[in-house]
Amino acid sequence: MPVTVIYKTSATASGGRDGSVKSDDGSVDLALVVPKEMGGPGGTGANPEKLFAAGYSACFVGAMKAMSAKVGVAVPDDTTVTAHVGFGPRSEGGFGVTADLEVSMPGVAKEDAQRLVEAAHEVCPYSNATRGNLDVGLSVV
Question: How far apart are CA 6 and CA 60, in angstroms?
Fold first, then answer.
């Protein structure tokens, strides 16, 4: 599907999962650490899964706000989306990721929140990028 690009950025990684990553404007400049569960030393630092979780959760809140008027459900200021991202071997070989989004909308009826979450999932760029490639779990808490 063609995309009309209205914003573009870049980041450069060096050293792989135990190196570093830096955005083109320097606003992201992180040391990367391999988690103990993946055979690394663990400790303080980011990894691709943390970065994906951060991006997906922030983008999903934006998609909820974008769909709010259409669905007729206001997004409270204290709304949160937590993206739980997993990593591991695939039965078909290689490795894969999992993603589950946990949405909290204090003061909003669960069925209304669920309608908004489902609508946001249809337009969120991260949801569109992953659709057909990984199952994304959606839950309203």
Answer: 18
Domain boundaries, the chain: 1-46, 48-140
Model pLDDT for residues 11-55, shown as the tens digit of each residue: 999 999 999 999 999 999 999 999 999 999 999 999 999 999 999
Secondary structure (3-state) at 63: helix
Q: Is the pLDDT of residue 2 over 90?
A: no
Q: How far apart are CA 132 and CA 96, in angstroms?
A: 13
Rounded Cα gap, residues 127 and 141, in angstroms: 19
CATH architecture of 1-46: Single Sheet (2.20)
Amino acid at 104: S
Of the candidate CATH numbers 2.60.40.10, 3.40.30.10, 3.30.300.20, 3.30.1300.10, the domain formed by 48-140 belongs to 3.30.300.20
- Of 18, 127, 111, 110, the closest CA to residue 62 belongs to 127
Whether residue 1 has pLDDT greater than 80: no
